[in-house]
Structures are given as C-alpha cells and as structure tokens.
Amino acid sequence: MSLQQVLVFGHRNPDTDAICAALAYAEFLRLTSIPDAVAACCGPPNQRTEFALKTAKLDAPRIVMDVRPEVGDICRTEVVTAREDDVFYEVYERLKAHSLRSAPVVGHDHNVVGMINLVELLEVVFQDGDDAVGSRRVSSCLSKICRVLGGEFQHAVNADKTEDLLVMVGAMSAHGFKERLHRFKAEQLLVVCGDRPTIQLPALERGVRGMIVTGGFDLSPDLLELAQEKNVTVIKSPYDTATTTIKIKTARSIINAIQRKFVTLISEQPLSDARRVTERASQPIFPVTDETGKLVGIVSKTDLLSPPKRKLVLVDHNEISQAVDGAEESDILEVVDHHRLGGSLKTAQPIKLTMDPVGSTCTMVARQFRNHGLKPSRGIAICMVSGIISDTLFLRSPTTTDVDRDILAWLEPFCGLDLDAYAQEFFAIGSALRTCTPSQVVREDCKEFTENKHRFTISQIEEIGFELFWNRKDELQAALTELCQSRGLEFSALLVTDIVTNSSLLLMSQEPPGWEAINYPRVDRRLYKLDNVVSRKKQLLPLISRLLETGGK
C-alpha cells in the first residue's frame, strides 16, 4: 500500500452506505482529480453489502485496520546488495557507483545474512599487512580473479572453485625463484610473472595451482601444452606485474568482513517501534525484510525521523472516534458526510468539507457525478443506489429528502434493475440476528459518540420483524455490556429497526443519568419501544443528546 495513494475510507464497522460511498467516491476522484485514489474500509462488508457488491460486480474495498505508516511503506525497494561469495572489487565498484558506504549481504535465497560497510571492506585488501605471507593470501576463485583483471583464460581448471591461494611474484632470478617455489604447497600457489620462460617453466613443472602472465603476453605453445599436462590454470593479464598483483588482492572474498551482528527491521513494523529499535544503532542503513527474512528494502535513520503521512478522504463520517485507527496522524484531505458535525477532527491545513443533511452519503457522491457531467458505470451506479436504499430504508426513513428521491431516479437508468424488486431482495438478505454472534451484531454498524463528556456507542441493525430479537435479547444485552467495558464507555446502545413497520427497539447496556425522561415506553429491563424511530443520526442521537444534557444538569 503506497503512501502516494489517497485512501477513501468510510467509518469503522462500515455499513452499506459507508462502503459503497467509498468505492464510488474513489472512482469519482480517479476520473476528476486524484488518479491514485483507492477505496478502503475498516472491516469486512456485511451480507447485505456483499449482495450489493456482487450485483454490481465490484470487489470489496481493501480492508485496512490501521493507517499509521509501517516500515515497508517508506523503505527503498531498489537496493544495492552484496553476496557472501562476492569479492572486494565487485562490492567496492557497486558501492562506488551508487555513492554508498554500506549494503546488506544476502544469501542465495535472498535472506539477509549480514551487512558490509566500506571500512571493513577496505580491510579485505589491506589485511595482514605486517605478515609477509599472510598479506599474499587470497581467498577467491580463479574465474573472479580473471574477471577482476579483465583478463582471459588460456587454460582453466576448476576455475569457479573458491580456495585459499598464495600469490608469488616471479620478479627475481630463476635460481631464487626455484628455491622459494619449494617452500610452499604447489596446489596453493598462484604465480604472477611476465614473459619470462625461466620463471614460467619451473612453476609449470612444479604443478602450481595457477599462473598469470602479465603484460598481455601469451604463454608459448610448448609451455601451454605443459600447463595442460600439469593441470595448471593460465590467465593472461593486460596489466604489468605490479598492477596485476595489486588487482589480485581486490579479488579477495568479503566473507570475513561481513558484519553478522546487525539490526534488521520487519516490513510490517510500525515506524514508532522502528525508531526506538534504531536510535542507538551505529548502522547507517537498516535492511527491511518480510516475515520470512527475505530482503524487501532498506531505510536510514533520516527516513524514519520524518516520514510522509498517509493521505485520507473520509466519507459517511467526520468524527475521529469513528475513523480508521491512525487517522489522527494522517493528512485528511477531504470529508464528505451527511451526519452532524462533531468530534475532535483537526487538520494542519485547510480541507474540503462537504456536508449536507440528506439521507445517504451515496446521494452526495452521485450528485457529484451528475454535476460534473459524468455517467457512472453500471457497477458504480448499483453501488450508489444500494447505499441510498440502505440508509433511507428505500426512501421510507424520516431522513429521506427530495434530493435523495431525485438522485435515485437519476441513477436508476444506469443500473438496469427493477429497484422495487432489488430493494426487497436487499433487505431480505443478511439478517444479523440470524447469522451473526451477539458480539458481531453489536459491532456490525457501531458508531462512537461523545456528548457533554459522555462517551458511548450506538449500533443499528435492520430486520424484518422482531421475532429473532426476542429470542436473543439477553445475549445481546450481555454483548452490549462487554462492548461498553472493553472500550471504557459510559454505555452502549443497540437500535433494532423493523423496516416493515418503521419502528425500533432500543436495548441499553446501562442507563445514564437523566434517562428517566426518555418518554418512550419501557418494555423490559433497559429495553424501550420507539415507534416511528428508524434513524440513528436524525432521531435517536438528538434524543440521547437531550437526555444527557438534562441528566448533566
């Protein structure tokens, strides 16, 4: 999920209007102003929403439960790496080409096995400087030595085998060379010499591991035949003997310079956690891996200190308490909503705020399409129609306005559906009381509010009749109590609406001060019958607000 994308979110525990408005408004933004707009949601769609999306042939928005950036959101994925079998020259050239001081070392499965930095890398060339023999040891393979030299093989034997070699320069008398030649094991010796047969012949007769002929000279045909007979690898170097000897040292393996103790970060790690882990580390960069240890990118301390923020557009809500986790740390670009203005929404910059007391957020989104002369696709039209039908109870809710009726009539031709039949089927599907656990019922369409310093939630479900409710009343009340306690609320309420009779039952976890003035009949303990009340935002929330204000006084 790129930080360049603008995520269009409905509220937590999203209903059909929230999800459909997010999908439709993301499409509108892509067509008009923000190509990277993507719909997202804070939870899975309920069965009615799934039915709407299936009818519209649209995928559900991506579920994102927290929008605070993670390490994987900011890491650089184009990474210069080293491998354990690399040699100094290869890694040094790679770092120099990209102006780097450090790089992760990966195995053949792309798992991070260590770090290499320029200081330790230079020690590969200058190691054992005070040891006459040790300074001439080279752990490498002949194929890499040949590549470092830019040379060519005249004869090769097991050239890809990594081994410990001892470099001997044949820049002395033939007598002195022969004497020194016998001090070491022939299978370890790599002889560097110019076009000097008096040096080449004894080395070949001794059966050394390899011979490098400098100055761009070829080994003579007779001596090459001897090399083949003795299984001696022969490399032709274009450089003089001194330069060739120095370059051979740069073909040393980096394996002893790899730092095996290092700090690594996980792609899904929150940035706050990553900053805490890295603040005292001396590494200039930190490898980022997936959960299996495979490298996905790198970050620096600077990357972690001032990361870009996630960009959000909020639809069908405007209160931070109802928004996706992390919204308060994001850049909110726009709000499109049909509820009251409330909560603690604050932004660092001016934003576009569109509020209208219509029955559905999808009404507002569809009006944007019409005002801009855009014809929605069949799927997006069905999506917006579903949000309107859901939130207005197919235009029967008291929240319904003439704008909702007008927009629904405008959308109908794009849908290719009989809306009366579609609405009937829509409401017949997905009874929460029939298919969900008590905990799921009270959380399915749950919104949190703060009124006169009282924090509470109101959940709402629509049913055909109340028969299932009476069978599950006690367990639903227990689930409300658990919801209230888990969130540290003063109370939680569940509004069960019968879409046939346009009436509701209100179940409470507990009753706050002033509740005795509710003026609706109490039918059981903490249970009230609310005739002609079907709207949470326009009828129930104002009622609760007045009661809390009275109770507070």
Describe the structure in your own words.
The chain is built from 20 helices and 24 strands. The radius of gyration is 37 Å and the shape is elongated. The model has no long low-confidence stretch (mean pLDDT 92). By secondary structure, it is α/β, with parallel strands linked by helices. It has four domains: 6-69 and 309-428, inorganic pyrophosphatase (n-terminal core) (Alpha-Beta Complex), CATH 3.90.1640; 72-123 and 256-305, CBS-domain, CATH 3.10.580; 128-251, HprK N-terminal domain-like (Udp-n-acetylmuramoylalanyl-d-glutamate--2,6- Diaminopimelate Ligase, Chain: A, domain 1, 3-Layer(aba) Sandwich); 432-552, DHHA2 domain (Diaminopimelate Epimerase, Chain A, domain 1, Roll), CATH 3.10.310.20. The two termini are 49 Å apart. A six-stranded parallel sheet has the order 3-2-1-16-17-18.
Topology:
Blueprint: E1 6-9, H1 16-32, E2 37-41, H2 47-56, E3 62-63, H3 71-74, E4 82-83, H4 88-97, E5 102-106, E6 112-117, H5 118-126, E7 137-140, H6 142-149, E8 152-155, E9 163-169, H7 174-181, E10 189-193, H8 197-206, E11 210-213, H9 221-229, E12 233-236, H10 241-249, E13 265-266, H11 271-278, E14 285-289, E15 295-300, H12 301-305, E16 311-315, E17 331-337, E18 352-355, H13 361-371, H14 378-392, H15 402-415, H16 419-428, H17 432-435, H18 438-444, E19 446-451, E20 454-463, H19 467-487, E21 491-498, E22 503-508, E23 522-524, E24 527-531, H20 536-552
Parallel strand pairs: 1-2, 1-16, 2-3, 4-5, 9-10, 10-11, 11-12, 13-14, 16-17, 17-18, 20-21
Antiparallel strand pairs: 5-6, 7-9, 8-12, 14-15, 19-20, 21-22, 22-24, 23-24
